[in-house]
Amino acid sequence: MKTLEIGIASYDQMKARTLAIARGEHTPAKGEPKVWFTSIESFAKLLSEHNRHLLELIARERPRSLTELADLAGRSKSNLSRTLKTMSRYGLVELRSGERGKLVPRVPYDQVRLDVSLTGTGSGPSDAIGTRQAMR
Question: Which of 17, 36, 45, 51 has its CA 20 to 30 A from that of 10?
């Protein structure tokens, strides 16, 4: 089973983490989230019931094009294309080139795991580097 690790962090926390990685001050740990959202609401919107159904449909039917998926899902191709491009930015969908340049959607993960701090410590992207930076 393949799981996508997702975290919630502010824009500033994500920026600090990215800069720390670039400077060699932070190495992402195994199991650390690979994808970050700025809020639980934005995560929930992307993984709405409607979109989870779409992911299930792609995994089950393995459509050979966006046109085929649009027919299966009963959605317009333009709407579907926007949704899938957003999902692909977060790694939830892969859009590969198929026959004659057609985009073929695939779902690379079986599940997602959301890492959320309830106390403000312990799961944000800068937690591992925050203490070090505060000591400077």
Answer: 51
